[in-house]
Structure formats: structure tokens, C-alpha cells
Automatic annotation (TrEMBL):
It comes from the Bacteria. Gene3D superfamilies: Vaccinia Virus protein VP39 (3.40.50.150). GO terms for biological process: methylation; rRNA processing. Keywords: Methyltransferase, rRNA processing, S-adenosyl-L-methionine, Transferase. Residues 25-310 form the S-adenosylmethionine-dependent methyltransferase domain. The keyword Methyltransferase applies. This is Class I SAM-dependent methyltransferase. It holds the Pfam family Methyltrans_SAM. GO terms for molecular function: methyltransferase activity. InterPro entries: SAM-dep_methyl-trfase, SAM-dependent_MTases_sf.
Length: 310
């Protein structure tokens, strides 16, 4: 990355801070290659805490100028008006993704809001803090069409889609993820929003070994598939996604919808569309959801793909 481009970063951060709502948001998305020389830099706003991520090791000049600029940022009116309290630099390229607190004291477990819903985050211990910000409009989409529906949330992680679905009036949500610790955080998220726990089910199992249990709890009016691009020993996207798609006709109610997602820069929308034609031809592609405008990307196919099938 190029230190001479950092003034653009700070100019953009200041502009975004001036207008950001009192919610968590991405302020700067260098990963979309819209900002030459800053491709491995992102910045997230967690309602008072600023998390700056470096995805590639940088030289001392870049790091020093980045830190100096962030410290100066705390003297600006936008920082004071938004009640900024902490700035953290997370070195995502390094083993364990170590975090460096630059300003203030880090609250590692803040409760934040998105579109009126509360989420418990966990900062600094893992690469991801508990909610994927580029999926904001996907959660809104689920909330808007969940009323009265049975929802299946595959690769549920911390149950962000589940929270949106129950808030939108879903009758039942089944969350499936082999990471029981993530599902436990999902339970916390539902409690934070005072949801009826009887509407929510959690299956801490390997999806590919649990189709019987999943089917027993269905059929489903809405199925969400949001897998990792790769999970060692459990999921390889291009190989395993099709195994899920071929199960959909048995799980989906007549007229039901599927939100199928891919977040690998090398796997394009056509992979999902063609695979669905091959594995579940009764379902047809309807449209792709927009990504949040702050996640600007020079190549739309390199960014999050969230496709609706029916």
C-alpha cells in the first residue's frame, strides 16, 4: 500500500463520520479496489469505537502516518460529536489477527445496533467480530418478508438473519451451524432483542450430516444459505455448495424463496445460477440484492453476491 494515498483515507473517514447514523457501519472499504494504493485497508465504526483493519503487512512509513492521522482525527469535531472513544488497529494478515489499541480503552464486547436491532460483538479475539456488515441489506430483506414464515438459516454463525427474521414476524427459525459457540452468541442476540425463544431452534451440527433433522423440522418458506468461502475440513465452496442446492426441493414449500450467498471474489454469480439449474431446476433465479453503498467495488462480481431464487 502507498502512504501518499492516506490523505484520501482520512478525508473519506471524516466525511463518513459526519453523516453516519447512530449504528455500526463500514466507513472505508479499500478491499473493493476503488481506492488505489489503499486496497488492504478498511475502517469500521462501532458506535464510538473505530476498528481499522490491515489485511497486508505495511512498511514503517505507512504505519506511522496511519497512526498519526488517526490520532489527529480525535481532535476533529465529527469525532467529538459522534462521541468517539477508542481506535484499534487490527493486523488481519498476522497469525491470530492481533489488535493494537491506539486511543482510549477497548470495550471488547459492545452491544451495537443495526436497523433498530441489537447485536453483541466480540472484538479483538477473532478475525471477525460477530456480524458481517456487507450483509446489512440482506438482513433487511429477510426482515421485510419473514412474517408468518418458517425460516431455515444455514451456516447461521451468530444468527444475524435469525434475529432479522423473528423481528419481522417469522413463526419459526431453525439455525444450523457446526460452531456451537457461534450459536450461543446467536442466543444472546435474540435475548438482547427480547425475542420469543420458543420461535428459535439451534442445531449445532455439520449440515451435511444433519439433513434428516433439518427436514424433520421443515418444510420452510424461506431458506438462507450463507456459507464461508472455505472452512478447513468442513466446507469447500465450489465442491460442497451443490450438495446443499440439490436438497432444496425437499425442504422448500411451494412458492418458497431461497437467498443463496457467495462472498468469494473468485466465484461469480453464474456459479450459483448455473448450479441451481443443475441441482434444483424447479427453482429459478429472480434477482440479486444490492450491497450497501459503502461497500463500493470496482468489480461487482468480486464482492458479496446475494441471489434470490424461487
Amino acid at each position: 500500500m502507498v502512504a501518499s494515498q492516506l490523505p484520501l483515507f482520512f478525508e473519506h473517514i471524516e466525511s463518513e463520520l459526519d453523516q453516519v447514523p447512530n449504528e455500526l457501519r463500514r466507513l472505508f472499504h479499500g478491499r473493493g479496489h476503488h481506492w488505489p494504493g489503499l486496497e488492504q485497508l478498511t475502517c469500521d465504526w462501532l458506535q464510538g469505537q473505530m476498528i481499522v483493519n490491515l489485511f497486508k503487512e505495511v512498511d514503517e512509513t505507512f504505519l506511522s502516518e496511519l497512526k498519526d492521522g488517526l490520532i489527529k482525527l480525535t481532535n476533529l469535531s465529527c469525532w467529538l460529536e459522534k462521541q468517539g472513544s477508542c481506535i484499534v488497529i487490527q493486523h488481519r494478515y498476522a497469525e491470530g489477527a492481533p489488535s493494537e489499541v491506539l486511543i482510549g480503552e477497548l470495550n471488547t464486547r459492545p452491544v451495537v445496533e443495526e436497523n433498530g436491532l441489537k447485536y453483541q460483538l466480540d472484538i479483538g479475539r477473532n478475525q471477525n467480530f460477530g456480524l458481517f456488515l456487507d450483509m446489512r441489506l440482506g438482513r433487511d430483506w429477510v426482515k421485510e418478508r419473514a412474517e408468518g414464515k418458517n425460516v431455515l438459516n444455514l451456516f447461521a454463525y451468530t444468527c444475524g438473519f435469525s434475529v432479522a427474521a423473528v423481528e419481522g414476524g417469522a413463526d419459526k427459525v431453525v439455525n444450523v451451524d457446526m460452531a456451537k459457540s457461534s450459536l450461543s452468541k446467536g442466543r444472546e442476540n435474540h435475548k438482547l432483542n427480547e425475542h420469543d425463544s420458543r420461535k428459535v431452534n439451534y442445531l449445532g451440527h455439520d449440515i451435511f450430516k444433519s439433513w434428516g433433522k433439518i427436514k424433520k423440522m421443515g418444510q420452510y418458506d424461506l431458506i438462507i444459505i450463507d456459507p464461508p468461502s472455505f472452512q478447513k475440513g468442513s466446507f469447500a465452496l465450489t465442491k460442497d455448495y451443490k450438495k446443499i442446492l440439490r436438497r432444496l426441493p425437499d425442504l422448500l414449500t411451494e412458492g418458497g424463496e431461497v437467498l443463496a450467498c457467495v462472498n468469494s471474489p473468485v466465484v461469480h454469480s453464474e456459479f450459483l445460477i448455473d448450479s441451481m439449474k443443475e441441482e434444483a431446476p424447479s427453482l429459478s433465479f429472480q434477482y440479486r440484492l444490492d450491497n450497501p453503498p459503502e461497500f463500493i467495488d470496482t468489480d461487482p462480481e468480486a464482492s458479496l453476491k446475494a441471489l434470490v431464487f424461487k
